[in-house]
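Q: Could you fold this chain for me?
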Amino acid sequence: YCIGTPSLTAVWGMIHNYQRKLNSALGTGVRFTSFSWFIKDYSIVEGKKLPEVSMQGSGQAKLRRPGIVDNSYCDLQFDLIVHIDGTDEDLSLIDEKPQILRAHFPSTLAGGAMFPPELDLAIDWCRLYSDEATLFKRLRRLPLSGRWVTPTKHKVDDLKSLLLLLSDNPELSPTMFGYMLLEKPFGRLGSIEKLHCYAEPTIGLIEYKTAIDIRLKGKESYFKKAFWMLDAQERFMLMKR
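A: Sure. Below is the predicted structure, expressed as structure tokens.
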């Protein structure tokens, strides 16, 4: 059901990884609290990917390919707007070293590779904004062919209601939305964080908005309704507005 729609949890995981790398490099404690996502271009990758050749078997003497993994892949071009929160000292340190944002930007997303724009395009692809009006003025110029990935008020409780909503609302799409915890988090040896637990992924709904729709509704509506953040509770971790 989710083929063709990027995973919100994958984007949030990439942003969290970015936060950790940036704080480690600068010695800061900034937090990436929310993000907004605009997809400029999307194309499905046809065919199957051949796995890498490796040594397998008891003798470890022959090069073989493991079985082909049946999965779906795509190529994306997108813009990501991330809200950064922190102390005045930490934010000033980032302002003084904007090049470090590019140096530590993650290179992977959802099992694929990310690349900055080509050098000959001369695009300033990583910038800081402290004023909402200045940022929105630039976002107003995004191409009409793209789509904003925005939250929606529609909710689903089962597969039947999901299919009914999708048939009546073509702008809606299902995607990976978060996790329902299967146990109470506790300390587990080898985990990255202090608390760890096992969980099941959940499916939620997103709404695709055109660039002109976001532009006409204005700056206040965009910053209020087009950003995603993680809601972490005792029994779930879900993306929300």
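A (continued): Residues 8 and 226 are 13 Å apart (CA to CA).
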